[in-house]
Task: structure prediction
Amino acid sequence: MTGRLSASTVPLGRRVHVRVPATSANLGPGFDTLGLALNVHDELEVVATESGVRIDVSGVGAPGTEHSVPTDETNLVARALLHVFDRVGVEPPGIEITATNSIPHGRGMGSSGAAIVEGVLAAKGLLEGIVDVTDADVLRYATELEGHPDNVAPAIFGGLTIAWVDETGPRHKQLAVHRGVSLLVAVPEATMSTSLARSLQPTEVPHADAVFNLSRSALLVAALTQSPELLLDATEDRLHQTYRASAMPETSALIGELRAAGHAAVVSGAGPSVLVLASDPAARLEAAKIVEHRPEAWNARLLAVDIRGGTVDRVPSNAAV
Result:
């Protein structure tokens, strides 16, 4: 787009509310491809102001807490919001953000992807009636910042997503998860750097391992949507979890114990959290008991699939904050 529209095109005081779910990517064999939205959410209220960027954060990442996040324009939500304005050629107004965060940081539950999606959706809401930001645009802008679409796709669209990139950019397919599938996420006190986790993987893998994961990824889609009884076999992986195990010994040990007991346990995203895809609620409770009896401190969270994905709504300007 040539030229830039004035900031006055976004009415001062325009207010939007954004809600975005946590995600778990990879799901075992579906490395950088499969993702699942979880019913844990971060929320924002964003107001267009005259100038500057001001952010108030409560909950996870609040000032003075572990992994506190910036409260200026370097904040990932603000960076994503401003990225969209730059991409569509509109001069941004000042931004006031009130963030309420519940997604754990550095635990493999898609906190950075959620922050990016929050910022992109907030920009979409502020630009309503000025520039049409489509769902495909939201995925594209979020992927530009995240680097790959496997986390941002379920955060945007909800449910189970298959994400890929072709010559037109990032694309996705959303699928409904079988109602029998029950989720457990075991969250440790320790954190894990996604960049560190990725650095532990080789640049090439044996042909047999690639074929193995292709078969398990295809089977996993069938297991999650039609045949939950196949989840244990479908979540076998040879592409990334083994290589990352040395950096997450407690995670690796818990996954081994859960799988030995018949539970489909995998690393959630880059870890160190563990995702259990149980075939029914009773199996999930059995898995939770194993987690609770580990000598290390783990928080066993019984979760559900978020089917809505990210939402953005205009808030009346006279509404209470």
